[in-house]
Structures are given as C-alpha cells and as structure tokens.
C-alpha cells in the first residue's frame, strides 16, 4: 500500500497507509489528518486541499491547467511544489510520499 | 455539562461537531440524523454518483472510527421535539438527549410538486444518497428522461444522464436556465453547452400531468399541450427549508428557521445553520437563505466557535460551484440587484463581473477557475470599484496578486 506522511506546519508528522486510487485529500480526511479541508469533495473546485509535495512529482504528472490556475490563489502561498491533494492519486503500490500541509486553507 | 445536540447529519451538522472538538469543547456532542448511512457528501449525488463507477463509500465525510475517537455520538433517528423547558431533544427510538445548546442543521428538501401522476414509478426526486442510488438504477434502464426544472440539480442530472447515453429533455418554466442564480450570459453558455451535448431544452414550459401506463411513468404532458415520452422523470424545481421541528418548538420561522447575525434563533440556546437557516438582519434590511456547501460548512464552524465563546457576528463570503459534465461553473459573492455586467474571456471560458453601485459584488465564472479564485481572494478583502477594475481590464488576477504583494510587504 502507498504510504503518505503528512507534515504539519509545526513540524509534527502523521503517516498513513493509503489505498491505491484514493486521493491524498480523501486519505487525509479518512485518517484524521488536520489542515486539509477538501470542501468540494475532490473536484479541484474549492482550493482547500493545498499541499506541498516533496520529492519527485513524476508519478502524478504535472498539474492540469485548471489546477494550476487554482493554485495561484490558494490561502497559503504557492510554491513550486504546490498541488491540490484531491488531484494526487497514487497508482504505485510501493509509493512513499511526503506532503507538507500549509497553515491555512480557507 | 449537558452538551450540544446537533440535529441534522449533513455537511453543516458534521462540521459543527468536528469544529466543537477541534476547538476544545469537552462536553457531550450528539449528532442526530435519520439516514442509515454515515454522514456523507451531497454534491456528488447529482454528478459522479449517477455514473456506474460512483461508489457510495467514497462519499463518507468521516469514518465511524473518527466519530468514536472524537467522542461524537451519532444518534440514528428522527428528532421529533425540542423540549425547551426541560432542555431535551426527543428522538424516535432513542432516549431523550439533554442539551445546553441545540444546533439545527436540518437542511432542505426538494420542493414538492403536486402533479397528477406524481406517485408513478420512474418519478424521482434527488436529495439523499438512497435517492441517488435509486435514480441511478432507473437511469440504467432508461431511454429517455425528462427533467422538470432548469436549476443546478436539474442540469447536473441532465448531464449525468447524457453521459449514460440517455436522451434528455429539460422543461423550464422561466425563459432561461439557472435564472435565480446566475446572469444571462452564464445562462446562455450553460444552455449552449447542454444543447451541444444533445439535451433538449424547453423554456416557458411546465408539466401539467405525468402520464402513466401500468403504474410506470411513460410521458410528461406540458402546458402547451406537448407530450414528451419519458421512462424517468426527475423533479428538480427547487428546495424548501426543513423548519417543522423549529416551528413545533415555537421558534420563529419564515421560509426557514429565522436567525440573527449570530445565527441564534429566537431561543438563545438554539442556533440554526446551513440550508434551513434564514439569516435576518433588521438593521441592514437583509434576509438570506443559502443552499451551498460553503455556507453549510462556514456556518457549522461558526456555530461551534460561538458556543465556545465567539462574540462577533457571522461573516463569510458566499461561493458556490456546479460541475455539469465538462462545464465548470464557479460563483462568488452575492449578485442581488446588479446594475452592470461586464464579460471578459472567450466563448467557452469566461467570467461575468457583476457590479452594484460602481463596486464589484459577484463574479460568475465558466471554465475560468483562475478568475474565480482571484475574485474570492479579492472579495474577502473588500469590493474593488469600477475604476480599479477598468484599469486592469477586469483581470482580477492582477488585482489579487497586487493585494497579496501589498500584504506580504506589510507582514
């Protein structure tokens, strides 16, 4: 199973196992990860599941045009590795991922 | 401490309970809900859940373990009475639940359409997950569906049905789609999209009768005398607030549970939030009931904060979205009486800037998420005036970037 570590703004961590084909937004909500809201339920519409994705982004491909546009105006500032976690769906059983959760989403 | 009883297990109710705990509330928290499912997301009911791949488990807002860990009691049943003197909520099939505070989050139900043939098989409404599952099953065997009402639910269902290869006709009494929610340019774009997808649209038309055969709907007779063939008819003519419990408890209601700017009902121990609440501000002369996820969750968070001591009135910028196939609508602000509309963008990707008294009050975006997000950031901070907007040719992204740069400089 893919393993995802969510790193909070204060440096503490929360590591969870994720089902393949489950987005990192949904996995966060299911596992009581703080700081990811996902108000629109995962349609890249609300911009409240912003994360900073560490390491390689290869397995997810680049953000779509719409995601890219949404990311410019998320509540926390955009970085080069900013993503909407609803759009990050691990497909590799052995994936080990680290995402940082910004201080604010709304 | 007797605790907080939240009545309604939708987005607003669950957000209240979760926010009470994350805010440090230590007393009992009970969420009363009549449905058999764990609390779930509603927006996909009219979209992804109508496709075969739609998985009900994906909709769960929080797991059962989460509620247990957070000591949030999910009470399965219908709340029938609030005993305000005894401070207890009566729930069918359960012992009375004590409270210090009640949060009414009872939502809204589809507006009831009284029509001959209303109870024929194949006639559907869409509110709950069970409704969605039933509608999906009907669509699976359907060749032609008629949707009554060209609002958000109606058009989302139309899209989902087309995607399944079902023929779709929409009857709308008004002269354009989504009339109560968006400006004419957006209505036109939505109509053009659905026509291109093969949806038939009838304006100025309403159903006078649902025609049946052997107990199943086979057609819709319209005001102009047409008969449209249908094996499924979806009633999507708006929603009404669920306020009967509040009324029975003697609280003020008026097309919803009347609340003040602090979302308090006429009983200070009872708050009402989400689709069921009408926020009235006698000083400002405003009265607003919103049906949206944003409103439900923002009011849920606020209700919890206020129980925990927040003194300021509720304030949030309304926003809304509707995905219809490849069409993405995003709205922010409150349009109300708009005196000027400015459209920027191309035919398939544009935003409508709504101005009132020379200031931006709402932005409606069609496949234009960047402008929507920028407008949200701007309208949270204030209402840009027309001169500011003209100076950047209504590119709100430029203004939002500038605002952020200014704030970063100050910080």
Map the helices and strands.
The complex is a heterodimer of chains A (106) and B (411).
Chain A: E1 3-7, E2 13-17, H1 24-30, E3 50-53, H2 65-71, E4 82-84, E5 96-100
Parallel strand pairs in A: 1-5
Antiparallel strand pairs in A: 1-2, 3-4, 3-5
Chain B: E1 4-7, H1 11-22, E2 29-33, H2 64-69, E3 72-76, E4 79-83, E5 88-91, E6 97-98, E7 101-104, E8 108-110, E9 123-124, H3 129-140, E10 144-148, H4 152-163, E11 167-172, H5 184-196, E12 200-203, E13 207-213, E14 216-222, E15 227-229, E16 232-235, E17 239-241, H6 244-248, E18 257-259, E19 270-272, E20 277-281, E21 286-288, H7 293-307, E22 319-324, E23 327-333, E24 340-346, E25 349-356, E26 359-366, H8 369-381, H9 386-391, H10 396-410
Parallel strand pairs in B: 1-2, 1-7, 2-3, 7-19, 9-16, 10-11, 10-16, 11-12, 18-20
Antiparallel strand pairs in B: 4-5, 5-6, 8-17, 13-14, 14-15, 20-21, 22-23, 23-26, 24-25, 25-26
Helix pairs in contact in B: 1-7, 8-10
Number of helices of chain B: 10
Query: What does the average pLDDT of chain A come to?
Result: 90
Any idea what the shape of chain B is?
A: globular
Range of helix content of chain A: 10-25%
Fraction of residues in β-strands of chain B: 25-35%
Strand sequence of the main sheet of chain A, in spatial order? 2-1-5-3-4
Identify the strand order in the major beta sheet of chain B.
3-2-1-7-19
How does the helix and strand content of chain A classify structurally?
Answer: alpha+beta
């Amino acid at each position: 199973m893919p393993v995802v570590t969510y790193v909070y703004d204060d440096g503490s961590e929360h590591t969870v196992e994720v089902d393949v084909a489950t987005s990192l937004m949904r996995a966060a909500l299911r596992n009581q990860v703080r700081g990811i809201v996902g108000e629109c339920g995962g349609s890249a519409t609300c911009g409240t599941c912003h994360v900073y994705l560490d390491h390689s982004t290869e397995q997810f491909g680049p953000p779509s045009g719409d995601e890219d546009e949404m990311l410019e105006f998320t509540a926390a500032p955009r970085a080069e590795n900013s993503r909407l976690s609803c759009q990050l769906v691990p497909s590799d059983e052995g994936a080990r991922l680290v995402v940082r959760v910004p201080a604010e989403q709304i | 401490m007797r605790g907080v009883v939240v009545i309604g297990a939708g987005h607003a109710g669950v957000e209240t309970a979760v926010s009470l705990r994350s805010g440090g509330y230590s007393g009992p928290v009970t969420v009363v809900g009549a449905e058999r499912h764990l609390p779930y997301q509603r927006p996909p009911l009219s979209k992804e859940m109508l496709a075969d791949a739609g998985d009900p488990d994906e909709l769960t807002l929080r797991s059962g373990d989460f509620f247990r860990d957070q000591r949030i009691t999910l009470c399965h049943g219908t709340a029938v009475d609030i005993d305000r003197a005894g401070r207890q909520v009566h729930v069918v099939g359960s012992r009375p639940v004590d409270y210090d505070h009640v949060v009414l989050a009872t939502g809204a139900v589809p507006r009831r359409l009284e029509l001959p043939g209303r109870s024929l098989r194949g006639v559907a409404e869409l509110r709950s997950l069970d409704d969605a599952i039933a509608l999906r099953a009907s669509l699976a065997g359907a060749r032609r569906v008629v949707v009554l009402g060209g609002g958000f639910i109606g058009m989302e269902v139309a899209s989902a049905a087309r995607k399944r290869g079902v023929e779709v006709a929409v009857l709308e009494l008004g002269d354009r789609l989504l009339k109560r929610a968006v400006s004419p340019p957006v209505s036109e774009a939505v109509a053009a999209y659905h026509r291109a997808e093969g949806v038939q649209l009838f304006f100025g038309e309403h159903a006078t009768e649902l025609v049946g055969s052997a107990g199943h709907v086979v057609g819709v007779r319209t005001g102009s005398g047409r008969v449209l063939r249908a094996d499924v008819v979806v009633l999507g003519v708006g929603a009404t607030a669920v306020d009967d419990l509040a009324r029975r408890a003697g609280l003020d209601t008026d097309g919803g549970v009347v609340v003040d700017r602090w979302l308090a009902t006429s009983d200070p121990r009872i708050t009402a939030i989400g689709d069921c609440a009408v926020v009235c501000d006698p000083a400002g002369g405003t009265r607003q009931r919103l049906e949206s996820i944003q409103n439900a969750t923002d009011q849920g968070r606020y209700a919890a904060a206020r129980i925990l001591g927040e003194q300021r009135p509720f304030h949030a910028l309304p926003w809304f979205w509707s995905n219809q196939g490849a069409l993405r609508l995003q709205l922010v602000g409150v349009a109300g009486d708009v005196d000027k509309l400015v459209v920027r963008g191309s035919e398939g990707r544009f935003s409508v800037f709504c101005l009132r008294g020379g200031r931006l009050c709402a932005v409606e975006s069609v496949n234009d998420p960047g402008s929507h997000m920028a407008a949200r950031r701007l309208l949270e901070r204030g209402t840009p005036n027309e001169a500011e907007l003209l100076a950047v040719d209504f590119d709100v992204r430029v203004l939002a970037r500038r605002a952020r740069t200014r704030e970063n400089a100050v910080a």
